[in-house]
Design brief:
About 50% of the residues lie in helices and about 15% in strands. The protein contains 12 helices and 11 strands. The protein binds glyceraldehyde-3-phosphate (G3H), 1,3-dihydroxyacetonephosphate (13P) and zinc ion.
Length: about 300
């Protein structure tokens, strides 16, 4: 069955590495990232956003993730990403997710605490752990968006964790969702992260962490994508963030670009071939490659003993 997200993260915190959270929307993505975990013997977290559930349905994604986790013999957790709708959060708890995120970061401090506490009570009754968010991560994807970045206040983070009892905390230190993270130089507020870390013992989560690798972007653009102006978080900043105390790192955009680049390439080279398997298998392979690079970067390769 699924692994306990909190246990995976507590172990990572002790070992000073980060666990990869990969957003998944279909079978090929799940197979690609799990194949990477298997090759590198790494623990991973499969995450479904509300948008993913709207697209594929919770029953389908849960069933595919369960099959992948059981066949892998690795600690693989299933997580609800950016839960905003209480009914979806309750459904995920009911369904047997390992963990849920309550994202009330757009609310004021007191309301965020109230909502988070409510979900913590519901989830803990079933032994499920809870990620919450304080501060706002910028950028926009399907159902997750925020216009601006509001850095997490370290003192407030301490109070938030104490009052809510959340199990891990997403913080805002300058990253944003999607492929357009920085207009100019890529910079993160590592100083804020260090301050939060000195006050909070709860594992810390970095959203909007995709690297948007130039090689991938080049391939996608070679076959017709227009990705001008994209910029991700440099690997060097990720390494410093892990050293400064980040334990869970979310990646969605890199997986999306890998999918896009591989599908475009396959269609370009096989104009007479309309077999979906010949179009999607290369996407699955490239996703595996990208996931392996992320796992290696996070230092979690070889950490997948149950
Ligand atoms: O953090 C957001 C995730 O990348 C999910 O985005 O709402 O487009 O599925 P989505
Ligand atoms: P990216 O858009 O940088 O991949 O971030 C994904 C994320 O934070 C999902 O919660
Ligand atoms: Zn996110």
């Amino acid at each position: 069955m699924f692994a306990d997200t909190k246990k995976i993260l507590m172990k990572a915190q002790q070992g000073k590495y980060a666990v990869a959270h990969f957003n998944v929307n279909n079978m090929e993505i799940i197979q690609g990232v799990v194949a990477a975990a298997q090759k590198l013997k790494a623990p991973i977290i499969l995450a479904t956003s509300e948008g993913a559930l709207r697209y594929a349905g919770m029953d389908y994604l849960h069933a595919i993730a369960k099959t992948a986790a059981e066949n892998s013999h690795l600690p693989i957790a299933l997580h609800l990403d950016h839960g905003k709708d209480i009914n979806i959060i309750k459904k995920a708890i009911q369904k047997g997710y390992s963990s849920v995120m309550i994202d009330a970061s757009h609310e004021d401090f007191e309301k965020n605490i109230r909502l988070t506490k409510k979900i913590v009570a519901l989830a803990h009754k079933k032994g499920i752990s809870v990620e919450a968010e304080l501060g706002t991560i910028g950028g926009a994807e399907d159902l997750v968006s925020s216009r601006s970045i509001i850095y997490t206040d370290p003192a407030k983070a301490k109070e938030f964790v104490e009052r809510t009892g959340c199990d891990f905390l997403a913080i805002a230190i300058g990253t944003s969702h999607g492929a357009y993270k920085f207009a100019g130089k890529a910079s993160l507020r590592q100083d804020i992260l260090s301050k939060i870390k000195s006050k909070v013992k709860t594992p810390l989560v970095l959203h909007g962490a995709s690297g948007v690798p130039p090689g991938l972007v080049k391939t996608a653009e070679k076959y017709g994508a227009d990705l001008s102006g994209v910029k991700g978080v440099p690997d060097s900043q990720i390494k410093v963030a892990i050293k400064n105390g980040i334990t869970k790192i979310n990646t969605d955009t890199d997986i999306r670009i890998a999918f896009d680049a591989a599908v475009r390439k396959a269609l370009h080279h096989q104009p007479k071939d309309f077999d979906p398997r010949h179009i999607l298998a290369p996407a699955r392979d490239l996703i595996q490659e990208v996931a392996e690079q992320r796992i290696r970067l996070f230092g979690s390769a070889g950490r997948g003993k149950k």
